[in-house]
Amino acid sequence: xxxxxxxxxxxxxxxxxxxxxxxxxxxxxxxxxxxxxxxxxxxxxxxxxxxxxxxxxxxxxxxxxxxxxxxxxxxxxxxxxxxxxxxxxxxxxxxxxxxxxxxxxxxxxxxxxxxxxxxxxxxxxxxxxxxxxxxxxxxxxxxxxxxxxxxxx
Length: 153
Hints:
Blueprint: E1 14-17, E2 22-25, E3 31-32, E4 38-39, H1 45-50, E5 56-60, E6 71-76, E7 83-86, H2 115-123
């Protein structure tokens, strides 16, 4: 009898079988249990704070045992409110120069979470914001039609 067809292991768990039973190996999946159903991560930074954890990078799994996988965030717990920052791959103070004659530059950021995962944490959030910081030298900002750089004044 084929016990691993279909695979009863969830979240990418590996199924092995004997003649009359099966077993799931959950190693490296972020889940535990007989069928790799239970997340080993908390659902939010708030949950880590309740466990007495301090500000740091943590893996969260906002839908618990649901279909969305865990992802890494930074939890800031220095205030009464807990702040969750979704991590991206751009290093601070990254220099960017134009790569075309039109002198336009597009910079792509890759985040630690998909849009579905971000939606899962923002749905339960009390407040959300996005912060973007940049510094330019001899550049027109925001694609302004005027020849002078945007001054913000």
